[in-house]
Amino acid sequence: MSEERKLAIICSKGSLDMAYPGLVLANAARMMGIEADLFFTFWGMDIITKEKVDHLKVVPVGNPAMHMPQFVGGLPGMTDMATTMMKKEIEKLDMPPVREFLEMVHDAGCGVWACKMAAEMMHLKREDLVDEVDGIIGAMEFLEKAEGAQLLFI
Amino acid sequence: MLTKELTVALDAEGFMTNPNEWTPEIAEVMAAEEGIAPLNERHWQVINWVRQEAASSGEFPSLRAISKRSGVDTKELYELFPKGPARKIARCAGYPKPKGCI
User: Fold this and answer.
1) Residue B73 to chain A, least CA–CA distance (Å)
2) C-alpha–C-alpha distance, residues A114 and B40, integer Å
3) Are the beta carbons of B87 and A96 separated by less than 8 Å?
């Protein structure tokens, strides 16, 4: 594997289904010896917020891949049902829950960064974020870190 | 130095195609090629556990399973098998390239 290859992933969504792609790819990159950084911004901040990380949801409303009429997805309890189902399937695949996944990618050497603007907007301080966060950084600092990297926006 | 000739089938990327042909000497040769020789006791703990697990389950374990059950955690795995532990562990243990995502 090329020593210089590098991956930077921007995670901008905070639902359970959108938390996994970035984590899986960052982890796969590290397993192959590719340098990786995760940058969390806007709704993606939920993934690294202590109070939210264990309560991310799959929301059926507005998701055409759920293959159900929109009003059904909006019925009470449907979000919790979809979330429980996805968590079960994830576990079957030997995928860790999000909190453990963050610990795993971080232990694997992946950088975990929080967006400064999103943190300020949501009134989040360093102590509100999970321990794995390496720092709260601005857009320019992120771009410096991502220099030469393949960039992915999720 | 006395060297013994080892002949095993490898795929295009240098992974063994038949794990049954594996011997501990092969692990040392693979480790040398991967730049992690000589293998120490901690490397062997991983290799032995992986071989045992793969033989009993019929599947090469995920890196997550290795980190949780071999007695060597993620951080140490990356120290022992730096820059691509999935490849290095599979090669040293005599298995084909792991296909799993985790």
Assistant:
1) 9
2) 38
3) no
Nearest to A136 by CA among A55, A41, A65, A43: A41
Q: What is the pLDDT of residues A20-63, one digit of tens each?
A: 999 999 999 999 999 999 999 999 999 999 999 999 999 888 88
Please state the ipTM of this predicted complex: 0.86
The Cα–Cα gap between B84 and B102 comes to: 13
- B3-59 confidence digits (pLDDT tens): 667 788 888 889 999 899 899 999 999 999 999 989 999 999 999 999 999 999 988
* A142 to chain B, closest Cα gap in Å: 23
Predicted model pTM: 0.89
Secondary structure element (H or E) that encloses residue A118, with its range: helix A116-121
Chain A within 8 Å of B63 (Cβ-Cβ)? yes
Burial pattern A48-84, b for ≥16 Cβ within 10 A else e, equals bbeebbeebbbbbeeeeebeeeeeebeeeebbeebbe
In this structure, are strands A150-153 and A135-137 parallel, antiparallel, or unpaired? unpaired
Provide the residue count of chain B. Answer: 102
Q: Give the Å distances, CA to CA, from A59 to A2, A11, A22, A89, B59.
A: 39, 17, 18, 16, 34
The chain A residues in contact with chain B (CB within 8 A) are: 1, 3, 24, 27-28, 30-33, 93-96, 104, 107-109
